[in-house]
TrEMBL record:
Belongs to the IFT172 family. One of its GO terms (cellular component) is cilium. The gene is IFT172. Keywords: Cell projection, Cilium, Developmental protein, Repeat, TPR repeat, WD repeat. It comes from Homo sapiens. It is found in: Cell projection, Cilium. This is Intraflagellar transport 172. InterPro entries: WD40/YVTN_repeat-like_dom_sf, WD40_repeat_dom_sf, WD40_rpt. It comes from the Eukaryota.
Length: 126
């Protein structure tokens, strides 16, 4: 396997762990990157940033810094993305087929076991 650097998506920043997770869509047209700020950045197949949205905590009373995003997975049709968080919840966001479509939460799965969220991220999408 040969790897080739094509471009830099995020500029280098001071500190560690600025990116918590990444995922490619099934059709290879979208690439999602979640930063430590809990913001999901969406890139097209050419590496151009096309969209972004903020994730939500399970309960707003604990604040935005009460959780971290630990995993993401696209649906097979690449119109939804499941996001597993450390506050034991999985949100499924409908991101749409076109760039600029409104990002809305269409499902949420509350987990009683913190270790089961990874299994749900993979299995919860149709």
């Amino acid at each position: 396997m040969h790897l080739k650097h094509l471009r830099t998506l995020l500029s280098p920043q001071d500190g560690a762990a600025k990116v918590t997770c990444m995922a490619w869509s099934q059709n290879n047209a979208k690439f999602a990157v979640c930063t430590v700020d809990r913001v999901v950045l969406l890139y097209d197949e050419h590496g151009e940033r096309r969209d972004k949205f903020s994730t939500k905590p399970a309960d707003m009373k604990y604040g935005r810094k009460s959780y971290m995003v630990k995993g993401m997975a696209f649906s097979p049709d690449s119109t939804k993305i499941a996001i597993g968080q450390t506050d034991n919840i999985i949100y499924v966001y409908k991101i749409g087929e076109d760039w600029g479509d409104k990002k809305v939460i269409c499902n949420k799965f509350i987990q009683t076991d913190g270790a089961s969220w990874l299994f749900m991220v993979i299995c919860c999408l149709p």
